[in-house]
Design goal:
Radius of gyration of chain B: 23 Å
CATH superfamily of the largest domain in chain A: P-loop containing nucleotide triphosphate hydrolases
Number of domains of chain B: 2
CATH class of the largest domain in chain A: Alpha Beta
CATH architecture of the largest domain in chain B: Orthogonal Bundle
Strand content of chain B: under 5%
Oligomer: heterodimer
Order of helices and strands of chain A: EEEHEEHEHHHEHEHEEHH
Distance between the termini of chain A: 40 Å
CATH architecture of the largest domain in chain A: 3-Layer(aba) Sandwich
Chain lengths: 250, 343
């Protein structure tokens, strides 16, 4: 069997008396898009934060690309190829759209302790950045100041930033959050085009998106994995329907 | 353009035979170097350092202490002045940069004051009274600082060099990461940048430039004293860059010129010049968002909008503006009084 890209082994995390992650074990195969769904407060973002290294789990292991990264700080995990987008848009608002993405290219191409030379005219940075913008449909907005983008465009920019990091694993924390129907449809198209290029872990509330994109789905409730399986299996699981999908199925 | 003005200034001054003006402008340029160094941190990294005078003081004391031990060659004293300031910046930076916002301001202030009191307790080197420089720095037996005009142009050269260095830093790969850290440190960490290392490097470079300013200042005044490091000085540097326009290297220089010239001019007029100086600064800073450079840009936009080509146009435009202002004031006053009478 092929080594999974990401393996979470018995992760535990609590904030005070509140257990937000209990005994979570998930495996992510090489070209899989794995979705994590669950009601509000189920601990989805906390889980993503543990994987990307923004918070440390209390116990358990995170194995990424065959390497135990549990104790590794966030920047080093990113350097290993773990890219993420944020639920709340996290861009550099005063930078141009192109510069936002070029910075991501810069992060993986050579040292940034270069004190001379104009970074904004480095073709080696701008070209891959433009390619990433093209993929999310933002190429014509490259020179706009990122803070002035419409909300949906900011979501697309987040995605372009993650793409430009040439990730070995992409963590997507609610990429559709706050996007309108049309915008999320566009993002779904973009994501489905990217599917298979690299593995993705998707946390999302938008069930249309999840069932359209995911190869496998894990359902998280009160910090615990209720079940994992293909979309069909999950959709048919009576426990899932009772606990979460119920309202939407009616 | 500014640099050309600086370069031509001594020629103009020789006609007026005002030697003290050369002195004054040399001092202005020295402080402009320190202001540039500070603007690098405040303007591009949002790191408001309130202890920047310490770096100037350390650079100056390096010169003073070496001169007291009969070492005056700048081959030794210049690297030592810059190195000591950079080292102090590096060591304090490793601690200061763990904090953010107001805490960063307070802790840099604390380190600045620490340096100040340390200098004041250096009894062999004059303690609180400071120390007169035995001799100005020399270069391999040659004394470039003896000649006032040569000294002036050396300082100008340093200023141009620092300006160029800061500009290059800001637009480089390094500068992009440093500016990004101001915008969104979480995003930078997720991209794989260890923000702290970049900030520490910038802080150290800024400290080194402060040390250079201190080296020049000691030679210009033939004197070093703890007052160089007091928090007033750090505060003045902050006011200078705000006055000129933060986050704009030209602004740092314009602000320094304006601040020191204004102080000089007012202190000629009256003894209690600070009573005028303070409110004047408040007014300028309130009126001119983005400092004097911001004000100039606003003025230029206004000129273009009003299509001002002659003095007559200007007066007419000012008239229009005042009428508008008056109309608006009357209207709002009427509205308030009407709503009051109704209530």
């Amino acid at each position: 069997m092929v080594e999974p890209v990401l393996r979470l082994e018995a992760l535990h995390k609590s904030f005070g008396g509140l257990m937000v992650t209990r005994d979570v074990t998930v495996e992510l195969a090489a070209d899989e898009l794995h979705a994590i769904i669950g009601p509000n407060g189920a601990g989805k973002t906390t889980l993503i934060n543990q994987i990307s290294g923004l918070i440390a789990p209390d116990s358990g292991r995170i194995v990424f690309g065959g390497r135990d990264v549990t104790a590794l700080p966030a920047p080093e995990r990113a350097a290993l190829g773990l890219a993420r987008s944020f639920q709340i848009t996290s861009i550099l608002p005063a930078f141009s759209v192109l510069e936002n993405v070029a910075l991501a290219v810069q992060a993986r191409s050579g040292s940034s302790f270069r004190f001379f030379g104009r970074a904004s005219s480095e073709e080696a940075l701008n070209k891959p950045a433009m390619a990433a913008l093209d993929e999310v449909g933002l190429a014509d907005r490259a020179d706009v100041i990122a803070g002035r983008l419409a909300h949906g465009e900011k979501r697309a920019l987040e995605l372009a930033i993650a793409l430009a990091m040439e990730p070995k694993l992409l963590l997507l924390d609610e990429p559709m959050a706050g996007a309108g129907r049309e915008e999320s449809q566009r993002l779904i198209t973009v994501l489905s085009r990217l599917k298979g290029r690299f593995p993705m872990l998707l946390v999302e509330h938008d069930m249309t998106a999840v069932f359209a994109l995911a190869d496998r789905i894990s359902v998280l409730i009160y910090g615990q994995i209720l079940t994992s399986g293909t979309p069909e299996e999950v959709r048919a699981d009576p426990r899932v329907i009772a606990a979460y999908l119920g309202d939407e199925m009616e | 353009m500014m640099f050309v003005a600086f370069a031509l200034f001594p020629i103009a001054a020789t006609f007026g035979a005002e030697a003290y003006l050369i002195d004054l402008f040399r001092r202005i340029m020295i402080f402009a170097i320190a202001a540039l160094a500070l603007d690098l941190l405040v303007g591009y990294g949002a790191l408001v350092s309130f202890g920047h005078a310490a770096f100037i003081g350390i650079g100056a004391y390096a010169v003073g202490i070496l001169a007291a031990s009969n070492v005056s060659d700048m081959i030794i004293s210049l690297p030592l002045a810059i190195g000591a300031a950079a080292l102090f910046a590096y060591l304090t930076g490793t601690i200061c940069l763990r904090t953010r916002g107001v805490y960063f301001i307070m802790i840099t202030l604390a380190f600045g004051q620490m340096a100040y009191f340390f200098a004041g307790s250096l009894a062999p080197y004059g303690g609180d009274d400071g120390l007169t420089l035995a001799m100005r720095s020399t270069l391999l037996g040659f004394a470039p600082f003896k000649h006032d005009l040569l000294f002036y142009y050396i300082v100008l050269g340093c200023l141009v060099g620092c300006y160029w260095l800061c500009r290059a830093l800001v637009i480089s790969r390094f500068g992009r990461v440093f500016r990004g850290a101001r915008e969104n440190p979480t995003r930078m960490a997720a991209l794989g940048f260890d923000v702290f290392r970049y900030q520490l490097t910038a802080y150290t470079i800024s400290g080194a430039l402060g040390g250079l300013a201190g080296f020049l200042l000691a030679n210009a005044t033939d004197f070093v004293s703890p007052a160089y490091m007091s928090w007033h000085r750090s505060g003045e540097l902050i006011v200078m860059i705000i006055l000129g326009g933060i986050g704009n290297l030209n602004g740092a220089i314009v602000g320094t010129v304006a601040f020191l010239l204004l102080g000089e001019w007012l202190s000629d007029l009256t003894e209690n010049w600070e009573m005028i100086f303070g409110p004047l600064l408040v007014v300028i800073i309130l009126l001119a968002r983005g400092g004097l450079l911001g004000l100039a840009a606003q003025m230029a936009a206004w000129y273009r909008r009003e299509n001002i080509l002659s003095v007559g146009d200007f007066i007419a435009a000012v008239g229009r503006y005042l009428r508008q202002l008056a109309r608006r004031t009357i209207k709002s006053t009427l509205q308030t009084s009407r709503s009051r009478s109704r209530g």
